[in-house]
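Case study 2.
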Amino acid sequence: MSIIDAFRLDGKVAIVTGASTGLGMGMAIGMADAGADVCGIDYVAMDETEAIIKKMGRKFHQIKADLIKITPEGLNELVGEVVKVFGHVDILVNNAGIIRREDAIEFSEKNWDDVMAINVKTVFFFSQAVARQFVKQESKGKIVNIASMLSFQGGIRVPSYTAAKSGVKGITMALANEWAQYDINVNAIAPGYMATNNTAQLRNDEKRSGEILERIPAGRWGTPEDVAGAAVFLAGQNSDYINGYTLAVDGGWLAR
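Prediction:
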C-alpha cells in the first residue's frame, strides 16, 4: 500500500460524537471524504451532516442521545446499535463536550458536574465500550479524543473545563499504555481557536479577536477542516506507531 492510500479509510466505520455542527461535523465529513461510513451521535438532529455525507456516497446513521446523562450501560447499547447497523466499528472520535464559565470562587457544583460528566467521564466509558468491541472483533482500532489548549494551560473562569480537558490528555496516555497490546491506538487533538458557531461572539468582538489573532503565529482562526485533517490522519494507517499523544492543532498558539 502506498503512503497516500494509507490515509484512506475505505471500509471503515467511524463514530463521531457531537456531529451536528462545528468541529464534530467537520470531522464526520472528513471521515466520510476519506472513505468511511459514519455514525453521528448528538443530543440534536444531525440532518445537515447526514445530507452532506450521503451526497458523498457514504452511509450515515444518526443517534440522538444526551451524553451528559448517559450511563456506561447506555454507551454499550450505543455501540451495539452501531454494530447492528454497520456490522462493525473501527474508529471513535470523542468530540462532544460543553463549557461553563463562572469565577472559580463562585463556581457551582452543577457547573462542575455537568462538564466533568460529558467531557471526561463519557470519554472514558465510551472509549471502554468501543475498545471492548475492537477486542471482540479481533481488529485494530483507533480512538481520537478531543482535548483543548486547556489541556496545557490553566485558563480563566473555566475550572471544570480545564480539569476535564487535562483529564482527557491523561486518559489518552493511560488508555494507550493498556490497549496498545490489542492494536488499539488512542490519541487526542487539542484544537486552538476555531472559527465555529461557538466562537462567533468572540470573533465579532473586534478588540478580543484582534488580541487572539496577534497571539497566533498563523495569523488566522482555525477551521473544522484543519481539525478534520488531523483526525483522519490519526484514524488511518499512517498513524499506527503514534500512541498516547495529544496533537495541538492551534496555528502555533502554544509555541508563542
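The domain at 5-196+223-255 is CATH 3.40.50.720 (Rossmann fold).
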